[in-house]
Structure formats: structure tokens, C-alpha cells
Amino acid sequence: MSLSEVDRQFLQRCLERAPRAWQNFVDRFLGLVVHVANHTAESRGIALDQSTRDDLVAEVFLALIANDFGVLRRFRRNCSLATYLTVVARRVIARRLATSQVGLKTASQLDTVNLDTAGDNGHQSRIENREEVQQLMLRLDPQEANVVRMYHLEGKSYQEISQSVGMAENSIGPVLSRARSKMRGEAS
């Protein structure tokens, strides 16, 4: 799908810094960025609270305006603006989640970790969670465990995992899904 006339005008008005252009741009694409944040976190097994979601969305919009709208200026206009923004948002959010994953709980951790340890040292809790995940990974076949380790513990992208293990990139998601199912089944 190519760039629509409406989106071309939104983009042009932002780049020209027309009055209310940025506010209109944000209003138009806020829902898309929120959806991408939710989906990206969910696909990584991370439960987002409202505050974290808001931070991720804000970071995407900050990336768009950085360097005098550098990201928007580099848009080649050979696809829809929504498609381009989805890719940009996913990359910004995935990078942020990978770098700050230490403080976030995965969905499986929320299900299996006793949350009554509020008085415990947070570092000790993270070590226990990591050890628990590693124990569950022992029950997977080696290839599945390797993919889970690279994705969830090392924060690698599907593309990086694909190159590392020599598996088609579109096979990584199904392998992770099967592995998560096995790990949940073993954990309960």
C-alpha cells in the first residue's frame, strides 16, 4: 500500500512545523503506537502497567521528533505511513524493553513467582526468577531452550536468533510459543 494523500499531508505539515500539525499527527497515530506497545510487550511475555506503557509510547514519539523529525524525514514514502510508524515504534519499544527487562516481570513470572516477597531484596528475587526460568528450560529440547534463552534472557531479536541458530526467521515465533506452552505445563 502506498502513502495516502491524507498521510502525505500530515507528514508534510509536521515537517514544515505548521500550527497544530504535531498535535494532529499524535492524535491520528496515538492508538497505533499504544497497540504496538501492547503487542510488542505481549509477544515478549511482558506484562505492562499503565505507567510503563505511557513511557514506551512517549519514547516512540520522542524518537520521531528527535533530530528535527529525522525519522520522519527519512521516510521514503513507498509504503503507508502507518506501516512505517509501526516498524519504527516496534523497534524503539523492543530496544527499550530489551534494555530495561531486568525490572519487568514476564507473564510466566507473574504466574509462578510468589509476589508476597515485597520486603525481600529485588536483586535476590531477580536471581531466583532467572534460576527458575533456567530450571524450566532444562525440560525443553536443546534447540527450544537455546531459542528461549536468546530471546527472553539475552533480549535478541528474531532476526538475530535466526542468524545464530540457522533457523528461518518465521520459525522462531512458533518455536517460542511451543516452548512457552511446555514451560507453563511443567510449571503448574
The chain-level structural class is mainly alpha
Largest sheet: none
- Which percent range describes the beta-strand content? under 5%
Low-pLDDT segments: 102-128
Number of separate strands: 0
Radius of gyration: 20 Å
**Average pLDDT number:** 79
Shape: elongated
Treating each run of at least 4 consecutive H or I residues as one helix, how many helices? 9
Care to describe what's here?
- Helix 2 packs across helix 4 (81-99) and helix 7 packs across helix 9 (169-187).
- The N and C termini lie far apart (45 Å).
- With 188 residues, the protein is mainly α.
- 73% of the residues lie in helices and 0% in strands.
- The protein is built from 9 helices and no strands.
Task: Set out the fold topology.
Blueprint: H1 5-15, H2 21-43, H3 50-73, H4 81-99, H5 107-112, H6 122-137, H7 142-153, H8 158-165, H9 169-187
In short:
73% of the residues lie in helices and 0% in strands. The protein has 188 residues and is mainly alpha-helical.
Key attributes of the depicted protein:
188 residues; single chain; mainly alpha
